[in-house]
Write a structure and sequence with these properties.
By secondary structure, the chain is mainly α. The chain has 2 domains: 40 residues, no CATH class; 170 residues, no CATH class. Helix content is 75%, strand content 0%. Helix 5 packs across helix 7 and helix 6 packs across helix 7.
Length: 248
């Protein structure tokens, strides 16, 4: 009789593993390895043993995949569309305005997830951390393999987006000889310049938004403190006036 399976649903076990608090990951992973070995699933045990503990940024992205699955799917779809539009543009089959529109959709999808992360992470949502999360989300959205890991909530490391991804690697078509090649190279150069400029503007705008949000939170806290002081002063005034009225 074959041994009883101690891990009947490995895929679900992995979902649970990556959903755990980050400080519990290593212990839970090792426990899963032991149960797999006990069930004589040595190949699966070796595979699970090699899993790396996610970085804090990757863990935050995985958390978004579970708390905001619709927003993550929208990001992946926007990244896929951006990649396809860029490839057609480099082949001379797409208008540059369509690339800009696709890039805008991708940025909006990233921004929505970063806003969600800021509310979830509290004091850990510093500007540098959110910038790394933004880069990871953008990079994962335009990389098919990483996009699948993001949707599954199983990223293990932060990623760095370079420009808008495909623009750095797709070579232009030369279907009509040297003239087409020259035009394609010029288009590549122009699109790369636009991509770098827009990426810089995105980072600046996101940093400004993060700083504005932090300042607004500080002002709200100060306003709350002043309101409490005003209420206390009003109470003391009312008590003093009442005491004055009671005196002959």
């Amino acid at each position: 009789m074959p041994p009883l399976a101690a891990v009947p649903d490995l895929d679900r076990e992995l979902d649970d593993l990556y959903a755990m608090p980050l400080e519990e990951f290593t212990k839970a992973r090792n426990d899963l390895v032991r149960r797999l070995r006990k069930a004589h699933q040595s190949e699966a045990a070796a595979e699970i043993r090699s899993l790396r503990k996610p970085s804090m940024v990757a863990w935050a992205a995985n958390r978004l995949a579970r708390s905001e699955p619709q927003l993550v799917r929208q990001l992946v779809e926007a990244g896929e569309r951006l990649r396809e539009v860029q490839q057609r543009a480099l082949a001379g089959e797409e208008e540059r305005t369509h690339v800009t529109e696709a890039a805008t959709q991708e940025r909006n999808a990233v921004r929505a997830l970063v806003v969600a992360a800021r509310s979830q992470l509290g004091t850990r949502a510093t500007a540098p951390f959110l910038d790394k999360l933004t880069q990871t989300l953008r990079a994962a959205a335009i990389d098919p393999a990483a996009a699948r890991l993001l949707v599954a909530g199983r990223l293990t490391e932060e990623m760095q987006a370079v420009g808008f991804g495909p623009l750095e690697s797709v070579t232009p078509s030369r279907r009509r000889g040297d003239e087409v090649g020259r035009q394609a190279r010029e288009r590549v150069s122009a699109l790369r310049a636009d991509a770098r400029r827009l990426a810089s503007e995105v980072r600046e705008a996101e940093h400004a938004a993060q700083e504005a949000a932090q300042i607004a939170e500080q002002l709200r806290n100060e306003a709350d403190a002043k309101r409490i002081e005003a209420e206390q002063a009003a109470t003391e005034l009312a008590d003093a006036e009442a005491e004055l009225r009671r005196r002959p």
